[in-house]
Structure formats: structure tokens, C-alpha cells
Amino acid sequence: MNQKENREIDERLQYTDHLTEIIRQAERQGDFDNLKGKGKPLKLEKSYFANPYEKQLHKTMKENHVLPHWVKLGKEIDQEKELLSALQGKAYTRKMKQINKKNQRI
């Protein structure tokens, strides 16, 4: 495989979440520091969960500090993306493939 083909593969594997990057940049700049109600729980309407079983499920998960599977995967993906900058070549490609597989599971 020549250098051009390697670069093309890297470009296909590259995943960039633009919205997340915009939000992170705003956080770094302090744009969210003075929001009203910061650090306080959201006050959701009582009718937010139409299904009483779903409401109980979310309540139980929250009380037991259990995250939904897609949230766990998202956190894992974010951590792995931070490691990408230190990787090169096959290690970079391997890690990018792992990230893409997790993205497909979400």
C-alpha cells in the first residue's frame, strides 16, 4: 500500500463530531459559566414520561447510578478520541476502526 492509499484510508476513518467540538470550545471559553440554574437538576414536566414503567425505569437507573448503554459508549468514544493525537500509522488506523465500530453501536 502506498502513501496516497494510506492517506485516503485515514481520511475515510477520520470521524469528527463538529457539534461536540463547538460545545467544547464554548465550554473552554467559559460561555456556559453563568447560565441560570447551572449545577441544579432539570425540572421536567410530570408528563415527560408517558409510560409509568419507563418513568420507574429511569428513576431506578438514576438512583443506582446506572447510565444507559449509549451514554457509556459515548463517553468511551470521547476518551479514545483524545488518545488519537498521540498515535500514528497502523496504531492510529486500528484505534479509529475501534471508535467507528462503537459509533455504529450507538
TrEMBL record:
Residues 22-84 form the DnaJ homologue subfamily C member 28 conserved domain. It holds the Pfam family DJC28_CD. InterPro entries: DnaJ_C_subfamily_28, DnaJ_homolog_subfam-C_membr-28. It comes from the Bacteria. PANTHER family: DNAJ HOMOLOG SUBFAMILY C MEMBER 28, OS08G0560600 PROTEIN. This is DUF1992 domain-containing protein. It comes from Tigheibacillus halophilus. The lineage of its organism: Bacteria, Bacillati, Bacillota, Bacilli, Bacillales.
